[in-house]
Amino acid sequence: MDTAAIQLISAGIAMGFGAIGPAIGSGYIGGKALEAIGRNPEIGNTIFIRMLVAMAVTGTTGVYALVVSLLILYL
Q1: Within a 10 A sphere around the Cβ of 8, how many other Cβ atoms?
Q2: In a 10 Å sphere around its CB, with 0-12 CB exposed, 13-18 middle and 19+ buried, how is residue 50 labelled?
Q3: Rounded Cα gap, residues 69 and 53, in angstroms
Q4: How is domain 8-74 classified at the CATH fold level?
Q5: What confidence score (pLDDT) does residue 1 get?
Q6: Could you please report the per-residue DSSP string of the chain?
Q7: Residue 40 φ then ψ, to 5°
Q8: pLDDT by residue (tens digit) across 1-52?
Q9: CA nearest 6: which of 70, 64, 72?
């Protein structure tokens, strides 16, 4: 097998596994936030802001996976 093919497969696997976690985490955070807003609509703005911060933190894992994938491809 060629080195370029191994790099492409490795980068795809790294990005694929690295994107699963943030996707599941963001969905879980969004669902729980909407559930909390449904139970207590008066503090909906506070919950929404905290949900966005939590999603940003969760999304950084996907960015790290992208960086690793690009390093595999270009180094």
Answers
A1: 13
A2: middle
A3: 25
A4: F1FO ATP Synthase (1.20.20)
A5: 81
A6: --HHHHHHHHHHHHHHHHHHHHHHHHHHHHHHHHHHHHH-GGGHHHHHHHHHHHHHHHHHHHHHHHHHHHHHHH-
A7: -140, 80
A8: 899 999 999 999 999 999 999 999 999 999 999 999 999 999 999 999 999 9
A9: 72
